[in-house]
Amino acid sequence: MLDAVTLDQLRTFIAAAEQGSFSAAGRKLRRAQSVVSQTLANLELQLGVTLFDRGARYPQLTDAGRALLVEARAVAGHMDTFKARARSMAEGLEPELSVAVDVMFPMGALTRAAAHSGIAFPHTPLRLYVEVLGGVIQPVLDGTCRIGVVGSLPELPDVLAVEPLLSVPFVTVVAPAHAMASISGTVPTKALAQHVQLVLTDRTPLTAGRDFAVQSPLTWRLADLGAKHAFLRAGLGWGHMPLHIVEEDLAAGRLKRLRIADADPRYAQMPMRAVWRKDTPPGPAGRAFMAQLREGQVGASSRVKPRRHR
Q1: Which range, of 90-99, 192-201, 204-213, averages the lowest pLDDT?
Q2: Which pLDDT value is given to residue 205?
Q3: Cα gap 138→266, rounded to integer Å
Q4: What are the φ/ψ torsions at residue 57 (nearest 5 degrees)?
Q5: Which residues does 228 contact at the CB level (< 8 Å), separation at least 6?
Q6: Could you give the CA distance from residue 257 to residue 187 in angstroms, rounded to a whole number?
Q7: Rounded alpha-carbon distances, angstroms, from residue 294 to 9, 55, 291
Q8: Could you report the per-residue pLDDT of 57-86, keeping only the tens digit for each?
Protein backbone atom coordinates (compact mmCIF):
# COMPACT_ATOMS: atom_id res chain seq x y z
CA MET A 1 0.00 0.00 0.00
CA LEU A 2 2.79 2.43 0.85
CA ASP A 3 4.35 2.03 -2.60
CA ALA A 4 1.13 3.44 -4.09
CA VAL A 5 1.51 6.78 -2.26
CA THR A 6 1.86 9.54 -4.86
CA LEU A 7 3.42 12.97 -4.88
CA ASP A 8 0.00 14.41 -5.67
CA GLN A 9 -1.37 12.95 -2.44
CA LEU A 10 1.50 14.45 -0.44
CA ARG A 11 1.00 17.88 -2.01
CA THR A 12 -2.72 17.67 -1.19
CA PHE A 13 -1.83 16.75 2.41
CA ILE A 14 0.56 19.70 2.66
CA ALA A 15 -2.00 22.11 1.20
CA ALA A 16 -4.73 20.98 3.60
CA ALA A 17 -2.41 21.35 6.59
CA GLU A 18 -1.19 24.79 5.53
CA GLN A 19 -4.58 26.17 4.46
CA GLY A 20 -6.42 24.93 7.56
CA SER A 21 -9.37 23.34 5.76
CA PHE A 22 -10.13 20.99 2.91
CA SER A 23 -12.16 23.63 1.09
CA ALA A 24 -9.28 26.15 1.24
CA ALA A 25 -6.88 23.47 0.03
CA GLY A 26 -9.27 22.77 -2.85
CA ARG A 27 -9.23 26.44 -3.84
CA LYS A 28 -5.46 26.54 -3.77
CA LEU A 29 -5.17 23.34 -5.82
CA ARG A 30 -8.13 24.27 -8.03
CA ARG A 31 -10.00 21.12 -7.08
CA ALA A 32 -13.39 20.39 -5.55
CA GLN A 33 -13.48 19.90 -1.79
CA SER A 34 -14.81 16.40 -2.32
CA VAL A 35 -11.75 15.49 -4.37
CA VAL A 36 -9.42 16.80 -1.64
CA SER A 37 -11.35 14.88 1.03
CA GLN A 38 -11.26 11.66 -0.97
CA THR A 39 -7.55 12.07 -1.78
CA LEU A 40 -6.70 12.48 1.90
CA ALA A 41 -8.91 9.60 2.93
CA ASN A 42 -7.14 7.34 0.44
CA LEU A 43 -3.76 8.56 1.70
CA GLU A 44 -4.69 7.77 5.31
CA LEU A 45 -5.86 4.31 4.25
CA GLN A 46 -2.59 3.62 2.44
CA LEU A 47 -0.45 4.91 5.33
CA GLY A 48 -2.49 3.17 7.98
CA VAL A 49 -2.64 6.31 10.16
CA THR A 50 -5.09 9.16 10.71
CA LEU A 51 -3.65 12.46 9.56
CA PHE A 52 -6.55 14.76 10.49
CA ASP A 53 -9.03 14.84 13.37
CA ARG A 54 -12.29 15.71 11.66
CA GLY A 55 -14.35 16.06 14.87
CA ALA A 56 -14.10 19.86 15.05
CA ARG A 57 -15.39 22.49 12.62
CA TYR A 58 -12.07 22.53 10.85
CA PRO A 59 -9.82 19.46 10.49
CA GLN A 60 -6.89 19.40 12.92
CA LEU A 61 -3.62 17.57 12.41
CA THR A 62 -3.16 14.57 14.64
CA ASP A 63 0.22 13.85 16.26
CA ALA A 64 0.96 11.44 13.44
CA GLY A 65 -0.13 14.06 10.91
CA ARG A 66 2.24 16.67 12.35
CA ALA A 67 5.16 14.22 12.27
CA LEU A 68 4.46 13.07 8.72
CA LEU A 69 3.91 16.64 7.49
CA VAL A 70 7.62 17.32 8.04
CA GLU A 71 8.52 14.30 5.92
CA ALA A 72 5.97 15.17 3.24
CA ARG A 73 7.43 18.65 2.88
CA ALA A 74 10.93 17.17 2.59
CA VAL A 75 9.83 14.74 -0.13
CA ALA A 76 8.06 17.49 -2.07
CA GLY A 77 11.08 19.76 -1.71
CA HIS A 78 13.45 17.08 -3.00
CA MET A 79 11.17 16.50 -5.96
CA ASP A 80 11.18 20.22 -6.78
CA THR A 81 14.99 20.20 -6.71
CA PHE A 82 15.06 17.07 -8.84
CA LYS A 83 12.83 18.66 -11.48
CA ALA A 84 14.80 21.92 -11.45
CA ARG A 85 18.09 20.10 -12.01
CA ALA A 86 16.55 17.97 -14.77
CA ARG A 87 15.20 21.13 -16.43
CA SER A 88 18.63 22.77 -16.18
CA MET A 89 20.28 19.74 -17.78
CA ALA A 90 17.71 19.71 -20.57
CA GLU A 91 18.52 23.38 -21.22
CA GLY A 92 22.24 22.54 -21.55
CA LEU A 93 23.44 23.28 -18.02
CA GLU A 94 25.99 20.99 -16.40
CA PRO A 95 24.60 18.67 -13.69
CA GLU A 96 27.63 19.68 -11.62
CA LEU A 97 30.40 22.30 -11.88
CA SER A 98 33.67 20.54 -11.04
CA VAL A 99 36.84 22.67 -10.96
CA ALA A 100 40.48 22.04 -10.01
CA VAL A 101 42.23 25.29 -9.07
CA ASP A 102 45.92 26.07 -8.68
CA VAL A 103 46.76 26.88 -5.06
CA MET A 104 48.43 30.07 -6.28
CA PHE A 105 45.15 31.53 -7.55
CA PRO A 106 43.81 34.47 -5.44
CA MET A 107 41.27 33.03 -3.03
CA GLY A 108 39.24 36.26 -3.00
CA ALA A 109 38.63 36.01 -6.74
CA LEU A 110 37.78 32.32 -6.39
CA THR A 111 35.22 32.86 -3.62
CA ARG A 112 33.54 35.68 -5.57
CA ALA A 113 33.25 33.43 -8.63
CA ALA A 114 31.76 30.68 -6.45
CA ALA A 115 29.28 33.12 -4.91
CA HIS A 116 28.19 34.30 -8.36
CA SER A 117 27.75 30.69 -9.49
CA GLY A 118 25.56 29.94 -6.47
CA ILE A 119 23.26 32.83 -7.39
CA ALA A 120 23.19 32.44 -11.17
CA PHE A 121 23.08 28.62 -11.22
CA PRO A 122 21.49 27.58 -7.90
CA HIS A 123 20.75 24.03 -9.07
CA THR A 124 24.30 23.33 -10.31
CA PRO A 125 26.39 22.21 -7.31
CA LEU A 126 30.07 23.16 -7.17
CA ARG A 127 32.84 20.63 -6.51
CA LEU A 128 36.25 22.26 -6.00
CA TYR A 129 39.79 20.90 -5.69
CA VAL A 130 42.78 23.09 -4.77
CA GLU A 131 46.01 21.60 -6.09
CA VAL A 132 49.44 22.48 -7.49
CA LEU A 133 51.35 21.63 -10.67
CA GLY A 134 50.14 18.34 -12.20
CA GLY A 135 47.54 17.96 -9.46
CA VAL A 136 45.49 20.63 -11.25
CA ILE A 137 45.33 19.07 -14.69
CA GLN A 138 45.28 15.38 -13.73
CA PRO A 139 41.59 15.48 -12.64
CA VAL A 140 40.78 17.31 -15.88
CA LEU A 141 42.57 14.69 -17.96
CA ASP A 142 40.88 11.78 -16.21
CA GLY A 143 37.43 13.43 -16.33
CA THR A 144 37.02 14.03 -12.60
CA CYS A 145 36.89 17.80 -13.20
CA ARG A 146 35.49 19.69 -16.18
CA ILE A 147 37.72 22.77 -15.73
CA GLY A 148 41.23 23.36 -14.42
CA VAL A 149 42.72 26.71 -13.40
CA VAL A 150 46.45 26.29 -14.04
CA GLY A 151 49.30 28.57 -13.02
CA SER A 152 52.35 26.71 -11.78
CA LEU A 153 52.54 24.26 -14.69
CA PRO A 154 53.91 26.02 -17.78
CA GLU A 155 53.61 23.08 -20.22
CA LEU A 156 50.22 21.54 -20.96
CA PRO A 157 49.14 18.43 -22.89
CA ASP A 158 47.80 18.99 -26.40
CA VAL A 159 44.45 17.44 -25.51
CA LEU A 160 43.63 20.52 -23.41
CA ALA A 161 42.10 23.77 -24.65
CA VAL A 162 43.50 26.90 -22.97
CA GLU A 163 42.01 30.30 -22.15
CA PRO A 164 43.94 33.10 -20.37
CA LEU A 165 42.47 34.43 -17.10
CA LEU A 166 44.78 36.76 -15.16
CA SER A 167 48.35 37.09 -13.86
CA VAL A 168 49.40 36.69 -10.24
CA PRO A 169 52.35 38.85 -9.03
CA PHE A 170 55.15 36.89 -7.34
CA VAL A 171 57.86 37.97 -4.90
CA THR A 172 60.92 36.29 -3.44
CA VAL A 173 60.87 36.36 0.35
CA VAL A 174 62.80 35.30 3.42
CA ALA A 175 62.39 35.68 7.18
CA PRO A 176 64.08 38.73 8.79
CA ALA A 177 66.29 36.43 10.90
CA HIS A 178 67.55 34.51 7.86
CA ALA A 179 71.14 35.14 6.75
CA MET A 180 70.02 36.38 3.33
CA ALA A 181 67.90 39.11 4.91
CA SER A 182 71.08 40.98 5.90
CA ILE A 183 72.23 41.33 2.29
CA SER A 184 71.81 44.97 1.26
CA GLY A 185 70.61 45.89 -2.20
CA THR A 186 70.10 43.17 -4.77
CA VAL A 187 70.95 39.57 -3.95
CA PRO A 188 73.42 37.93 -6.38
CA THR A 189 72.24 34.67 -7.85
CA LYS A 190 75.26 32.84 -6.41
CA ALA A 191 74.00 33.74 -2.91
CA LEU A 192 70.70 32.01 -3.66
CA ALA A 193 72.53 28.78 -4.40
CA GLN A 194 74.17 28.81 -0.96
CA HIS A 195 70.90 28.59 0.96
CA VAL A 196 67.94 26.21 1.11
CA GLN A 197 65.15 27.09 -1.31
CA LEU A 198 61.64 26.02 -0.30
CA VAL A 199 59.88 24.55 -3.33
CA LEU A 200 56.40 23.15 -3.94
CA THR A 201 56.46 19.58 -5.18
CA ASP A 202 54.04 17.76 -7.45
CA ARG A 203 51.94 14.91 -6.03
CA THR A 204 51.49 13.49 -9.54
CA PRO A 205 54.05 12.05 -11.98
CA LEU A 206 53.22 14.64 -14.64
CA THR A 207 56.25 16.83 -13.85
CA ALA A 208 58.66 14.07 -12.82
CA GLY A 209 62.25 15.08 -13.49
CA ARG A 210 61.41 18.74 -14.12
CA ASP A 211 61.84 21.81 -11.91
CA PHE A 212 60.21 25.22 -12.23
CA ALA A 213 61.80 28.41 -10.79
CA VAL A 214 64.34 26.36 -8.80
CA GLN A 215 67.54 28.41 -8.36
CA SER A 216 69.37 26.55 -5.63
CA PRO A 217 70.78 23.02 -5.50
CA LEU A 218 69.72 22.97 -1.85
CA THR A 219 65.96 22.40 -1.83
CA TRP A 220 63.32 21.39 0.65
CA ARG A 221 60.22 20.21 -1.16
CA LEU A 222 56.74 20.59 0.28
CA ALA A 223 53.42 19.53 -1.20
CA ASP A 224 51.41 22.23 0.60
CA LEU A 225 51.56 25.99 0.08
CA GLY A 226 50.50 26.65 3.67
CA ALA A 227 53.45 24.59 4.91
CA LYS A 228 55.82 26.48 2.61
CA HIS A 229 54.46 29.78 3.95
CA ALA A 230 55.00 28.62 7.55
CA PHE A 231 58.53 27.37 6.79
CA LEU A 232 59.42 30.73 5.22
CA ARG A 233 58.20 32.62 8.28
CA ALA A 234 60.17 30.23 10.50
CA GLY A 235 63.39 31.11 8.64
CA LEU A 236 63.92 27.60 7.24
CA GLY A 237 64.71 28.81 3.74
CA TRP A 238 63.87 31.31 1.02
CA GLY A 239 61.30 31.02 -1.75
CA HIS A 240 59.00 32.52 -4.33
CA MET A 241 55.44 33.26 -3.17
CA PRO A 242 52.29 34.87 -4.59
CA LEU A 243 52.22 38.49 -3.43
CA HIS A 244 48.60 38.29 -2.25
CA ILE A 245 49.54 35.56 0.24
CA VAL A 246 52.56 37.29 1.83
CA GLU A 247 51.74 41.00 1.51
CA GLU A 248 50.50 41.20 5.11
CA ASP A 249 53.69 39.50 6.31
CA LEU A 250 55.77 41.98 4.32
CA ALA A 251 53.86 44.94 5.76
CA ALA A 252 54.19 43.58 9.32
CA GLY A 253 57.89 42.74 8.95
CA ARG A 254 57.38 38.99 9.35
CA LEU A 255 58.95 38.45 5.92
CA LYS A 256 61.39 40.48 3.85
CA ARG A 257 61.32 40.82 0.10
CA LEU A 258 64.53 39.92 -1.73
CA ARG A 259 65.58 41.81 -4.85
CA ILE A 260 67.37 39.33 -7.07
CA ALA A 261 70.13 40.49 -9.43
CA ASP A 262 69.43 39.59 -13.06
CA ALA A 263 66.06 38.15 -12.00
CA ASP A 264 64.24 36.16 -14.64
CA PRO A 265 61.08 38.20 -15.48
CA ARG A 266 59.16 34.93 -15.78
CA TYR A 267 59.33 34.63 -11.99
CA ALA A 268 57.69 38.04 -11.41
CA GLN A 269 54.26 37.07 -12.73
CA MET A 270 52.43 33.77 -12.96
CA PRO A 271 49.87 33.67 -15.79
CA MET A 272 46.73 31.81 -14.79
CA ARG A 273 44.84 29.90 -17.47
CA ALA A 274 41.62 27.96 -17.63
CA VAL A 275 41.93 24.55 -19.28
CA TRP A 276 39.53 21.81 -20.27
CA ARG A 277 39.56 18.73 -22.44
CA LYS A 278 38.81 19.63 -26.02
CA ASP A 279 36.25 16.82 -26.25
CA THR A 280 34.32 18.05 -23.16
CA PRO A 281 34.09 21.86 -23.27
CA PRO A 282 32.49 23.71 -20.34
CA GLY A 283 28.77 24.47 -20.37
CA PRO A 284 26.99 27.71 -19.39
CA ALA A 285 27.85 27.42 -15.68
CA GLY A 286 31.49 26.70 -16.45
CA ARG A 287 31.75 29.58 -18.91
CA ALA A 288 30.20 31.98 -16.41
CA PHE A 289 32.56 30.72 -13.68
CA MET A 290 35.60 31.37 -15.87
CA ALA A 291 34.33 34.84 -16.76
CA GLN A 292 34.10 35.66 -13.05
CA LEU A 293 37.62 34.34 -12.43
CA ARG A 294 38.90 36.55 -15.24
CA GLU A 295 37.65 39.63 -13.40
CA GLY A 296 40.25 38.88 -10.73
CA GLN A 297 40.33 41.58 -8.09
CA VAL A 298 37.42 43.64 -9.43
CA GLY A 299 35.14 44.59 -6.52
CA ALA A 300 31.83 42.86 -6.18
CA SER A 301 30.01 46.20 -5.97
CA SER A 302 30.89 46.96 -9.60
CA ARG A 303 29.43 43.74 -10.92
CA VAL A 304 26.25 43.50 -12.92
CA LYS A 305 23.62 41.52 -11.05
CA PRO A 306 23.68 37.99 -12.51
CA ARG A 307 20.73 36.60 -14.40
CA ARG A 308 19.05 33.71 -12.60
CA HIS A 309 18.58 30.42 -14.41
CA ARG A 310 15.42 28.67 -13.31
Answers
A1: 204-213
A2: 53
A3: 24
A4: -60, -40
A5: 198, 199, 200, 222, 239, 241
A6: 11
A7: 48, 65, 5
A8: 889 999 999 999 999 988 888 887 677 656
